[in-house]
Amino acid sequence: MTRLLSIAITVIFMVCGYQMSAGTRYWKGTASTNWSTAANWSPAGIPSDGDDLVFDQSGINTSIQNTPSLRLNSLTVQSTGSSVTYSFTPASSATLSFSGTGNCFSIGTNCTLTIPSTLGFDMGVWGAMSSMTVGGNFILNGNLVFEWSAGQLSIGNGGSMTINGNLTYNSPNGLLNVDGTLLLNSGFTIPSSAAQIIIGSTGTMAVHNAFNYQASGNITVNGSLRLNDSFTVPYTSSQLIIGPAGSLVVSGSFLYESSGNINVNGSMTVNAMEIPWTQSQIVIGNSGLLSVNGPFTYHSSSDFVVNGNGSFHINNTYSSNVLHTINGSGLVKVDAGQTMTLNSDLTVSGNLTVTGNLIVPATRTLKVNGILKIKPG
């Protein structure tokens, strides 16, 4: 009994001692650039698991060396006005992970943090319902794993985040919110989850490698989204929503297998595009423009609707089995040398301008209540 009581007291002491050791430390860098020098921190001491670390304009020797692997509660780079620039470099490969709740990682305005490829960031092993906020500049040359449950990764207006490694965003019910600039120069994967992406009116997101989006949450573009490689949305219920001021450009191939709709109220320009057998509906709103520069195959049990002043511009071959409706002053334009083949009926109450070829099989109906313009191709 005495032995068990002794063990219990020891365990309690160890737990309490660990909790007491966690605290807030400020980088001062007064002794050297070495992370592991106690005198470089205030209060003096080498950071340990569970600490909150703050880097501000009071620190010197801002190119910090020997960054270790740690499980932090939070990390903050902040400024009260003057610019702050920091960089972390490990002696060998290392990873920073975070165990806190709330805003666990924050880079304020006028602040810059640069991370080499040998230092990774893991937002997911320990935390839950935590957030990461970039209001300044964050340059990550390594990998970022973001898996916090219901977590939020936010790039604020005026903020910039550049990732030259791989970004894996696997946050169940998470939100990737871009009001600043997000530049992804390597692979980008969002595995199966309920995560969603919102690009605000001031936001710009560019992906320079393949983008595989497997989440069921919506992609909403009110700013600019540019995908310079292939873009795949597999069989989910995700919707693609382009707002009135939004712009989506897909330079590679675009495979959309989701049963969710594509709503285009802004500008959407894609290369080769395929929508296989789904229930997805394309709706081009009053101010929307869908321009397809490569072959476009569209098979669905839903209608393709062009409303108001919306436009669908066919710059290559287009084959579809869906029912098409052009309403109001909506426009479908077929370029010279290109072909639109109707495998279903087409009703035109707006404008259909054909400079290329329009093929209407004998079993299909072209009904014109608006304007049909056939021009020499």
Describe this structure in words.
With 377 residues, the protein is mainly beta. It has one domain (2-374). 5% of the residues lie in helices and 46% in strands. It contains one helix and 46 strands. The strands form three sheets. The chain has a 17-stranded mixed sheet, with no helix packed on it. A 15-stranded parallel sheet has the order 4-7-10-13-16-19-22-25-28-31-34-37-40-43-46, with no helix packed on it. It is elongated and about 85 Å long. The termini are far apart. Mean pLDDT is 84; it is low at 1-21.
Structure, briefly:
The protein is mostly beta strands. Helix content is 5%, strand content 46%.
Query: For the terminal residues, how far apart are their CA atoms?
Result: 96 Å
Q: Spans with pLDDT under 50 lasting ≥5 residues?
A: 1-21
* Structural class by SSE content: mainly beta
Could you say which overall geometry the principal axes of the C-alpha atoms support?
elongated
Q: Assess the beta-strand content as a share of residues.
A: over 45%
Total of domains: 1
